[in-house]
């Protein structure tokens, strides 16, 4: 795939509460700043207001403790975008069941029918659900609101245990930073692992790997490694092409294997062996994207061994073969 147009829904007619600014700023930060050295062209970002587009010098009414925003684009510009993102919906629409703007729901349905990829962050899932786009699908939202989402829209298979759900052309995320995970996941799907990881590094955030997601997921480790684990994990990442055991890592960390296992699982949410596999798959992804090395050499350098072993783990963890992954993200330089 490639970068395209990204339309973000902005409630200019009611103002944006201060506590919703974070979700709104995430897609603006990820998709709105050109990164010509990573991918050229970058995404085209459109902030599409609910209501009439505002003229220069005008702004919508500010919500309590919020801001009035002015946008160049309206809902008609949302309809022909490649990706549509609903960062959140007003609290009264979630807490009190107040109806969402009918013109927004109509525009979301039109965009989906036109082939747009539909995305929600946090409570934005309520808008996609109201439009019928989540019927029969697995979806998520902020854990504080998943029960309301499930009760109000019984046709939606709500999962409150994940950071985000990728269902192909419809994606939903939990609240706050989980929205950033999902946006970086979209970059990874569109432009590859190298671009997504470099972008995450520039933003000084980890490129998370939430469990149970679709193909082309990130396999990096969260930056919140427990104190004392960081050096040994960096040591292991520099030696992924070598045989490594839990005992090797524990010895390097000056811990017993049992203590190391417990500390790593608490810090990263995964076991030492799964952590090593994730790192090796991430190394293999980078090599497939950035080099023309034969598949068996990629397996050797990533520590996954033979081409057959590499292919086995790619199909199981990522969902495609190494060759298909390379074709999806060919070298650009």
UniProtKB/TrEMBL annotation:
Keywords for the protein's UniProt record, in alphabetical order: DNA-binding, Transcription, Transcription regulation
Residue ranges annotated for the HTH araC/xylS-type domain, each copy included: 230-328
Pfam families, sorted: DJ-1_PfpI, HTH_18
Top-level taxon in the UniProt lineage: Bacteria
UniProt KW Transcription keyword: yes
Molecular function via GO: DNA-binding transcription factor activity; sequence-specific DNA binding
SUPFAM superfamilies per the UniProt record, alphabetical: Class I glutamine amidotransferase-like (SSF52317), Homeodomain-like (SSF46689)
Record's protein name: Helix-turn-helix domain-containing protein
Native source species: Streptomyces inhibens
């Amino acid at each position: 795939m490639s970068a395209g147009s990204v339309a973000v829904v902005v409630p200019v007619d009611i103002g944006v509460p201060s506590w919703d600014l974070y979700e709104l700023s995430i897609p603006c930060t990820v998709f709105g700043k050109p990164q010509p050295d990573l991918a050229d062209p970058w995404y085209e970002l459109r902030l599409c207001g609910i209501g009439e587009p505002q003229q220069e010098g005008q702004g919508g009414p500010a919500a309590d403790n919020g801001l009035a925003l002015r946008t160049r684009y309206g809902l008609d510009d949302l309809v022909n975008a490649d990706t549509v993102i609903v960062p959140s919906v007003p609290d009264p629409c979630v807490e009190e069941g107040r109806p969402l703007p009918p013109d927004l729901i109509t525009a979301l349905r039109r965009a989906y029918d036109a082939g747009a990829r539909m995305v929600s962050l946090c409570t934005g899932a309520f808008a996609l659900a109201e439009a019928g786009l989540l019927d029969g699908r697995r979806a998520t939202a902020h854990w504080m609101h998943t029960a309301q989402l499930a009760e109000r829209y019984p046709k939606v298979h709500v999962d409150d245990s994940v950071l985000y759900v990728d269902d192909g052309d419809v994606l939903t995320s939990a609240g706050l930073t989980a929205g950033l995970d999902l946006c970086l996941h979209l970059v990874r799907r569109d432009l590859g692992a190298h671009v997504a990881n470099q972008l995450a590094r520039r933003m000084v955030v980890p490129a998370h790997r939430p469990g149970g997601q679709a193909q082309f997921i990130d396999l990096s480790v969260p930056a919140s490694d427990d104190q004392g684990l960081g050096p040994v994990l960096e040591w292991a990442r520099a030696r992924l092409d070598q045989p490594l055991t839990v005992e090797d890592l524990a010895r390097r960390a000056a811990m017993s294997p049992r203590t190391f296992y417990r500390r790593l699982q608490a810090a990263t949410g995964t076991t030492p062996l799964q952590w090593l596999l994730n790192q090796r798959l991430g190394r293999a992804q980078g090599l497939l994207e950035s080099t023309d090395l034969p598949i068996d050499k990629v397996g050797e350098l990533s520590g996954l061994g033979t081409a057959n072993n590499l292919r086995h783990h790619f199909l199981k963890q990522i969902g495609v073969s190494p060759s298909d992954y390379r074709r999806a993200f060919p070298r650009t330089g």
